Predict the 3D structure of the following.
Amino acid sequence: MTRGSCSWRAVVAVLLLSAIWPLLAWGHVESGQAGGFVSGLSHPVSGLDHVIAMVAVGLWGAQLGVPALWILPVAFPMMMAFGGMLGLIGIPVPGVEVGIAVSAVVLGALVLGQVRLPLIAAVCVVAVFAIFHGHAHGTELEAGQNAMLYSLGFVIATGLLHAVGITTGLIHRWDSGRLALRGAGALVMLGGLYFLWGAVA
């Protein structure tokens, strides 16, 4: 058995364990707590509008490079948690669905155009959009579930989606990769326009 095949088996084993970990945890805590965490973990991936925007944050961070590469994927979940808290305690944020759709349009356009904003401006862009995403998650907590574990779940899921974007975005080191990234940005932007049409129609 080669070292390469061992490495791949280890990666697959870790991924499988990660996938079933919430189910294993379910057997060791009260059902409402486990349900809250699992619901939070699955909520960000239950809507394509959330998914494409969160992946786009990672793509843009990869384009911008260090330190934006890690600052943007940290800033987004932090502000999303703040938005989630607003939703959980019932403080309204106007135009949430429109804000989510616009986030995909803008982030996709930034990736498509390979736009290099100053770091503070880039952080502000993702932070503002994160509030809309977080508020949507916060208002959709099901009755009887643990709000803290639910919030922890959707923050972790968001971080994983950012990681997908960052990992994919590393192809920008090559000319063909940069072209593919811009194409991905265009797809995100078009998806955002589709969702924006649905939100305002």
Summary: DSSP finds eight helices and no strands in the chain. The chain has one domain: 31-200. Residues 175-200 form the longest helix (26 residues). The chain has a mean pLDDT of 81.
